[in-house]
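hey so u asked for the seq, here:
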Amino acid sequence: MGHFIYQVQSGDTLSELARRYRVPLNVLAESNGLGDVHRIWAGQFLALVSKDPENKKIQAMRNGY
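ran it, C-alpha cells below
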C-alpha cells in the first residue's frame, strides 16, 4: 500500500487530487476526516493512501521525485 502526506496547494481540489493519485474521492475524504469534500485549503496536510501498490505517482512522491 502506498502512502504519503501531501500539503494542499492553492487551487487544489479534493476531487482533482483523488484523480491525480488514483484514490477514490470518498476514501480520500474519509481517511482525512473531511465531512465536506469542497472544504480544503492551501497549507492543509492530507494523508494520501492507495491500495494500488503500483501507484507510480505515490511511489515517486515517497521517493522525493
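The radius of gyration is 11 Å. The longest helix spans residues 14-20.
lmk if thats what u needed
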